[in-house]
Design a protein that fits this description.
alpha+beta
Length: 119
C-alpha cells in the first residue's frame, strides 16, 4: 500500500506518483492563473474561494463569484477579495479593458455566433 501525505491510499507506486503531481499536500497548481490544489477526495479546491468561504462562514451560493480587486489572481489575501455576481463581475472587467481589447473580444463573439449559425 502506498500512502500520500493527504491520506489517500494507492495500490501502485505509479498511482501514487501520478496523484502527487496534483495533490494539494504536495503542491499548489495554477489553472488560468488561479491557485488551486486537489484534496484527498480528488476535488479541485481554489484558494480564493476557500478564503472567501472561510470569511463568510459558509459555502458560496450558486451565482456568487469571488473577485480579485487588484486583478492579481494569485493575491488571495482576504482584503483583496470581494463577493460579486456574474453581471457586476462582467461589468467590472469590461471597464478595465482597453478599446482595442473590447474590439477584439467583440470580434471573437461575432465569430463564435457565426459558427453557431453555420452549424
Amino acid at each position: 500500500m502506498y500512502i500520500c501525505k493527504c491520506g489517500r491510499n494507492f495500490t501502485t507506486p505509479q498511482g501514487l506518483g501520478k496523484h502527487k503531481t496534483f495533490c494539494g499536500k504536495n503542491k499548489i497548481s495554477l489553472d488560468n492563473g488561479y491557485e488551486y490544489f486537489i484534496d484527498k477526495d480528488g476535488k479541485v479546491k481554489y484558494i480564493h474561494i476557500m478564503v472567501m468561504e472561510e470569511e463568510l462562514g459558509r459555502k458560496l451560493l450558486p451565482g456568487e463569484i469571488v473577485h480579485h480587486k487588484d486583478e492579481n489572481k494569485r493575491n488571495n489575501d482576504k482584503n483583496n477579495l470581494e463577493l460579486t455576481c456574474p453581471k457586476d463581475h462582467g461589468k467590472h472587467h469590461i471597464k478595465v479593458l482597453s478599446d482595442s481589447q473590447k474590439k477584439e473580444r467583440f470580434r471573437k463573439i461575432q465569430i463564435l455566433e457565426k459558427e453557431i449559425i453555420i452549424q
